[in-house]
Design a protein that fits this description.
Layout (H helix, E strand, L loop, with lengths): L11 E5 L3 H11 L5 E5 L2 H11 L3 E5 L2 H16 L4 E7 L3 H9 L4 E5 L3 H32 L3 H7 L7 H16 L4 E6 L7 E7 L8 E2 L1 H10 L3 E7 L2 E8 L8 H4 L3 H22 L11 E2 H18 L3 E10 L9 H12 L5 E6 L2 E7 L3 H18 L3 E10 L6 H16 L2 H4 L7 H12 L2 H5 L7 E6 H17 L3 E7 L5 H9 L6 E7 L9 E8 L3 E9 L2 E7 L2 H15 L6
Parallel strand pairs: 1-2, 1-3, 3-4, 4-5, 11-13, 17-18
Antiparallel strand pairs: 6-7, 6-10, 7-8, 9-10, 12-14, 12-15, 13-14, 16-21, 17-19, 19-20, 20-21
Helix pairs in contact: 2-3, 5-10, 6-7, 6-10, 7-10, 12-13, 18-19
Length: 582
């Protein structure tokens, strides 16, 4: 998204300063700009200039007049109530800067100054004034168009949101609650300069719009479901897209609400202003309600990580963490804060956790491949489970470059896997409380039903009933595919006769090319004499195959379900009293 919003505001600047070097620097720094600089070399002259010019910015040298400059701060703000005052001091008099802050100084600059310090100070004032002027303009436009329109007033307030995502949530809520559309989804660029769009807000939701998509995909989705796509655009400024359903009486939003164009213009400007503010503050942004970073910071860091990974052939992973409250909270701690603390205690100091909204976090894992990402996912889930039983948590991981080579694609894959885990057979079939043999039998009995085979995607178990050699070929193909992707972890169970585990051991026999093999003897374990078991954790996915051999026929289920793979490995560990999972 472009942030070249018209925030150019020529400033009137008064500098009350006696040091000739600083005067020359200010004059030289502001000469190429349209800002107006007026210099006073003593306090009395400075107060006269402030009174007559009512400047936007004043620089006051605190050591001027044997420290009298400090006392002048209050008089400057009294003479020009809207002025922003920056105190100037030296390294030997830093205590004066502390006192200046209590008297209303916006900041303290230590002399000798640099041109960048001066421009940065003015840029801060310029952005704030531009926001104020733009907000006032939007409010005036609303009053002139239709003073009684509460919707326009609400949208004008969106400019006060802390982040673009917060603004999108407010906009979607206004459109559903006040305009009356059946659905309102706000799509913003997934990353700066990206053509991929991310669904940043959703209200109403009679259908489930895509989480990540490009513009063409969204247009096709809207056409197929008779929805309306509205551009959040004003002149050359474009902030995103709106996906709108019809109103309760079946009309298009624009027909039912003539001021929709004004709302769109206001929202576009507000989103652009907030985007500009986010960009200027990146690098030091922390979410105020938790110990996580903001989404803006995450996008910035992830972009740099992608660049380095492409340039140096490095790997990294990211995860999406969705939370839902179930039952009554057991503590007074807000769930967002609790989950952030749990996640941070389970990850490395170099990992970056960002809060997306009240129910979602993103986690960046530098220098981490698929195996490390899945290990991290298990630690996070275990840590949260130990801390609370009132939260339902879904974690999905994606790895660069196996799952995508841009941020939007990686987030889309991770989010899809997190959403798929919410419907995992582990929870649907209550497998966690069962022993390994009972878990396999429950899967075979339930997944064999045609309804179970058709209503879920590849992440959910699929039933197969094939000759043993065909299942062996399937298993060897899965291991070969995992080995081609780089590092992989393979765990198989063996028992007397032809079986999947024995075939894997015969084919590979030992660890090679970054692939670790573990084979567990289960023939003597209760209920496991004919067990078929293969679990793979690879760079690009987790895969599990469990079942039973009945003569020359194998009945089994297989799935790319990370939660089922985790549970199967844990059950095998418990049954065989060996450690097969990190």
């Amino acid at each position: 998204m472009s942030t070249d919003l018209d925030i150019r505001h020529d400033l009137s600047v008064v500098a009350i300063i006696s040091r000739s070097a600083e005067i020359e620097l200010m004059s030289r720094t502001l000469a190429p700009t349209s800002d107006r600089l007026s210099v006073a070399t003593d306090l009395a002259e400075g107060l006269v200039k402030v009174s007559s010019q009512a400047p936007d910015v004043a620089f006051v040298e605190l050591t001027l007049g044997d420290g009298a400059g400090l006392a002048v701060l209050h008089h400057v703000r009294a003479l020009a109530p809207n002025v922003t005052v920056f105190a100037l001091t030296t390294a030997d008099h830093l205590e004066l800067g502390i006192q200046a802050a209590s008297l209303g100084s916006a900041g303290t600059l230590v002399m000798p100054l640099s041109g960048d310090e001066i421009l940065n100070a003015l840029s801060t004032v310029r952005a704030r004034l531009a926001e104020k002027l733009e907000r006032q303009r939007l409010q005036r436009a609303a009053l002139l168009t239709q003073k009684q329109s509460s919707v326009v007033e609400l949208v004008a307030e969106i400019a006060e949101a802390d982040t673009r995502r917060d603004a999108a949530e407010r906009l979607a809520e206004v459109l559903v609650d006040s305009v009356g559309v059946s659905l309102s989804a706000v799509y913003l660029p997934a990353a700066e300069g990206s053509r991929q769009l991310m669904r940043s807000a959703l209200r109403g939701a009679p259908v489930d719009p895509p989480t990540f998509c490009d513009e063409m995909e969204l247009l096709n989705f809207a056409r197929e479901r008779d929805l309306e796509v509205v551009r959040l655009a004003l002149r050359r400024q474009q902030s995103g897209l709106l996906l709108l359903g019809k109103t309760n009486d079946g009309r298009e939003a624009a027909d039912a609400f003539p001021l929709l164009g004004l709302v769109v213009a206001q929202a576009t400007t507000a989103l652009a202003l907030i985007g500009a503010r986010e960009q200027s503050n990146r690098g030091s942004m922390k979410d105020p309600s938790s110990s996580a970073y903001t989404f803006s910071y995450f996008v910035d860091v992830a972009g740099r990580e992608i660049d380095m990974a492409r340039r140096h052939g490095r790997r990294f992973s990211l995860a999406t963490i969705g939370i839902q409250q179930r039952g009554q909270a057991s503590t007074a701690v807000e769930p967002t804060v609790q989950v952030a603390d749990n996640v941070l205690s389970a990850v490395r100091d170099t990992d970056v956790l960002a809060r997306v909204d009240a129910n979602e976090f993103y986690l960046l894992l530098p220098e981490t491949g698929g195996l490390g990402a899945h290990s991290c996912r298990r630690r996070v889930l275990a840590e949260i489970a130990r801390a609370t039983s009132t939260l339902s948590v879904a974690v999905g991981v994606a790895t660069f470059p196996h799952d995508g080579n841009d941020l939007s694609r990686l987030l889309r894959v991770a989010k899809h896997r997190a959403e798929a885990s919410q419907g995992s057979s582990v929870g649907r079939l209550g497998l966690a409380s069962l022993t390994l043999p009972a878990m396999v039998d429950e899967l075979l009995n339930q997944v064999a039903l045609p309804s179970e085979m058709s209503e879920h995607g590849l992440e959910h178990p699929r039933y197969i009933e094939l000759p043993a050699m065909d299942v062996v070929s399937l298993a060897l193909g899965a291991v070969a595919e995992a080995a081609q992707g780089g590092q992989a972890r393979v765990v198989a169970a063996v028992h007397p006769g032809i079986n999947v585990g024995g075939a894997v051991r015969a084919e590979y026999g030992h660890d090679a090319d970054g692939v670790r093999f573990d084979v567990v003897e289960v023939g003597a374990l209760p209920g496991c004499a004919n067990l078929e078991f293969l679990c793979i954790i690879a760079e690009h996915a987790a895969y599990g195959l469990v079942g039973r051999a009945e003569g020359n026929i194998v009945r089994a289920v297989h799935a790319a379900d990370s939660l089922l793979v985790d549970l199967a490995l844990q059950k095998l560990s418990d049954a065989a009293h060996v450690r097969v999972i990190d």
